[in-house]
Amino acid sequence: MGKSDEPIFLGLVQKIVFANWLGNTFVDEAFKYPDMQNIVSTTAAVLGYALQIFLDFSGYTLIVSGLGMLLGFTLPLNFRQPYLAVNLRDFWRRWHISLSTFIRDYIYIPLGGNHLGYLRAQLNILAAMLISGLWHGANHTFIVWGAIHGIGMVCQNVYEHLIGIKLPVMLARTITFLFVCLAWIFFRADTSEVALQLLGGFRRHTSMISMQHIYLLAFIALFFIFSARKYYFEQRMVQLIRLFHGWKLTAVATVMISLVIFFGPSGVPEFIYYKF
């Protein structure tokens, strides 16, 4: 396996195996029947979609990056462990970096950025995030999603301006992650009614927890462990892969591809990013 093969394989695993498992198991049915969900299934759907959309987007960009490397192009990093962000500003520096940079350079700064006073800067942030939501589609749920992030960033700036007390890193990361997860509900829902019905599931209690939910908790824990030490694990995996040569390399590549096909869904999986 060459340097271009590694991101392609990693992207295929993220998208075809993990993202589709999360969508098929926890997300799709919950958003299809939002009024039938309870606190367990709603929580699983919200957390599942947060991981699904990241793995889908990240997997897509890794595949494209690998294909670009095969053609001699090196594409910039587009995701940098966004769910380890300590606030929303940090999140947007890590999430979909090419889009975030575009919004900053061609919307926020031309509106005046932070050069026209503190209040105007907050209005510019809100406007930029609203346009970011609209960029994803004409559906008003995207605008609501953008507004949620815009209001959240403005509240963060006001907090830092008036109070300025830094939260412990783990608490800050947890608050940011949960905020982003709740905002994703409007991004995923077809209508605001669906989003509100799903949010209502948090009020419906149940004692039913299946093994699938246990698997999801374990997956989330592993996800954050790997995210925190991403570069170490990537380097170790690359070193292990490069130990194989000749027929051994062919055998390993065949096993890996077979595992992707076996654990992946039937047919051609849909990429979330293709909708935008």
- What sequence of helices (H) and strands (E) makes up the elements? HHHHHHHHHHH
Structural class comes to mainly alpha
Residues in helix, %: over 70%
Average the pLDDT over all residues and give the rounded result: 87
What is the helix tally? 11
Taking Cα atoms only, what radius of gyration do you get, to the nearest Å?
A: 20 Å
Strand content is under 5%
Question: What is the tally of beta strands?
Answer: 0
Low-pLDDT parts are none
> What oligomeric arrangement do these chains adopt?
single chain
Major beta-sheet overview? none
Tell me the overall shape: globular
Cα separation of the termini: 32 Å
Number of domains: 2
Features:
globular; 71% helix; single chain; 2 domains; 0% strand; mainly alpha; 276 residues
How would you characterize this protein structure?
The protein is mostly helical and 276 residues long. The chain has 2 domains: 1-79 and 190-276, no CATH class; 87-166, no CATH class. It has helices spanning 5-32, 39-70, 88-94, 97-108, 118-135, 140-162, 169-188, 192-200, 211-228, 230-241, 246-263. The longest helix has 32 residues, at 39-70. The two termini are 32 Å apart. The model has no long low-confidence stretch (mean pLDDT 87).
Briefly summarize what is shown.
The chain is mostly helical. The protein is 71% helix and 0% strand.
Helices, strands, pairings?
Blueprint: H1 5-32, H2 39-70, H3 88-94, H4 97-108, H5 118-135, H6 140-162, H7 169-188, H8 192-200, H9 211-228, H10 230-241, H11 246-263
Helix pairs in contact: 1-2, 1-11, 2-7, 4-5, 5-6, 6-7
